[in-house]
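Aim 2, interim progress: modelling of the (R)-mevalonate-bound target.
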Amino acid sequence: MTVTASAPGKAILFGEHAVVYGKPAIAVAVDKRARVTINEGTTDHIQLKIPELDVYASINIDNGSITQLTISGEVEENPGTFDAGIMQYIKCALFQGELDSPLDHGLDIEVELEIPIGGGLGSSAAITVATLAARARYQEQELSLENLAHIAHQVELEVQGAASPLDTTVSTHGGLVYFTPHRGAVNIKTALEIPLVVGYTSQPGNTGILVAEVRKLRQAHPTIIDPILEVMEEITNQARECITRGDQKRVGELMNINQGLLDSLGVNTLELSRLVYQARLAGAAGSKITGAGGGGSIIAYCPGKTREVLEELDSIENAFQVGISTRGVTW
Ligand code: MEV
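Predicted structure of the complex, ligand included:
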């Protein structure tokens, strides 16, 4: 039996980091996905292929140990650098105890990725959601979207140490959403076109580390960082209204103010800053880091200027246009 599930990545327009402290965020599911295909195993291990990352590995079902393989499936005699990071999400999703049946036989799994890893675009959430959905389908288990999003968040917490449920919620449900950790996601209705360009640096960001650093900064300067998080909340709430009523100019301005505050939290880098400013010079109405920062990506909102911003960012680093996906997980 072959089953496939896929889930979208996401871009945060407002409120990253603040959302970890219970504040709202606005995010979109993007039209770039992670796709997971499961077949019955040809061995009694889990054989995993992620061709885009050049990852070929075998996971022992009994003890979870990972062995690097060659592309043709033999044990790699000279194991080199290996993206163990992303493997941890897949392994944790496959071994997650909250799904009813434990795995009792080998599987062949292939992961196809359209989302850059560590790019701030929710690759780990998309992979986790798609892996859980494919596993549930393979084991013929009923799994509601709410439960899937909840279990995917548990996986992110276990692997990363800290994560809000934002990425896993958006990847599960899709759309353009206003999200609060205690109330979940509400769709934002808008007549506004939201043309977005992502510029991503060659340096990946590590969400777990960045969230921990912001936490340390907050502990050291609570009377300064708490008001910053409150202003971020106000920006997100105003942005929701501006998106709903179609005020492009203010949406852009609010993104730029949000960027200044992200910089003050210490998650900006020289490369990200360069992309943010170049996007604005090329005509973006607003541009900011998207996701945890420290590397990864920026997002530029560019009504009427998509081609100019895309060309400009692509001449410095990598860039691509993203559309909003109303489709969440499919399986
Ligand atoms: C990660 O995409 C965004 C952060 O707010 C962390 C989180 O929400 O888990 C930095």
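Residues 81 and 260 are 36 Å apart (CA to CA). The mean pLDDT is 94.
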